[in-house]
Give the backbone structure.
Amino acid sequence: MAAPPSHCPALPSTLPRTGPATRTGPPPTANRPAPPSLLAAGTERDPYPLYRVLRERHPLVYDERFGAWLVSKYADVRAALADPRLVAVPPGRTLAHLEGGTHSAHRAVVSPAFRGAALAALTAGVARTAYVLARRLADRQEADLVAEFCEWLPTAAAVAALGLPYEDTARVQAWCRTGLGHLGGHHPDLDTFLRPHIARRRCHPGADLLSALCTARADGRPLSDEAVVGLAGSVLGAGGEATARGLASFLANLLDHPGQLGVVRVRPALTAGAWAESLRRDPPLHVVLRRAVEPVGAIPVGATVACLVGSAGRDPARFADPDRYDAFRTDPGQLAYGSGRHFCPGTLLARLTAEHGLRALLTVLPDLRWVPGFRPTPEGLISRSPRSLPVRLR
């Protein structure tokens, strides 16, 4: 893979050349009409009309109400996510928040942990958990796949990957709802929970991911406990709400297209592409925030930039017929879990969860289909997915 650009080439050509460097947005002007806003009425219900207006008329504009510069075109969003002058917010200690040599050193530690025996253990844990959850539904007539499958499988997979006790899955899932997000975030109980496990892995490492982090070395030195907690938090967060939402949209897209689902059923090698296409069309996170640590075109230091991933994935300049779900699309792009140096470390975990989750459902529940009359309705502005998926199981 080519190295990410050292600057954001697409942004300066589209940025308005107004606004002093001491402000985070352009100065108010009485004669200037109010620009479109993410907070406009109806956007949370259906953001795509606004996205279309932004791409066509305001490819980069300061949203006064939202308090951020909005980037909406695919090329600009991809460039912004890879630009080192735009860093993750809020401040944190996960891979997404590390910069420069520190980021490279820590990432070099995490990447090998998803190979070899650790990858085999992770894959087996995801598959086993998926089948357990699917079999719990086997004797039922109907079920809600969001509440009874999607919300549990990603967290249980992340817990298994780190080698943490299965009985702590419910506690970790609750944390993902109260502070531990896709970037790891922070939860006041996370340190207390992980420190004893880290101490044991330091003395008696195993084949799990937490052991790999505890025994790894960056720049010749072992990672600090704080760094291990932050990286483990990234994995737990990636296996939490974001992946659960992505899995819900993935199942909704395939159930909405039974012909495509039938092909994927008999050709499971196509599942990875079907997952990538769902992330393009319906990413779990529609808005990714960045903070400018250097000027980027007219964007001053300290400004917040909202990378509209949900808009980028529907950009007709990049994708043919972008509103259509096509499980066999040859190039669905790659933005939903980050881009450039901050490509999310939980991407592999999310993909394995989607692939093995779908396989378990189709194996255990071959007659899976919508409850008559139901159609999924995504909800949310920043994070977006269906909140329920009622299905018939027989």
Q: What stands out?
A: Residues 1-10, 12-23, 91-103 have pLDDT under 50 and may be disordered. The domain at 98-284+314-392 is CATH 1.10.630.10 (Cytochrome p450).
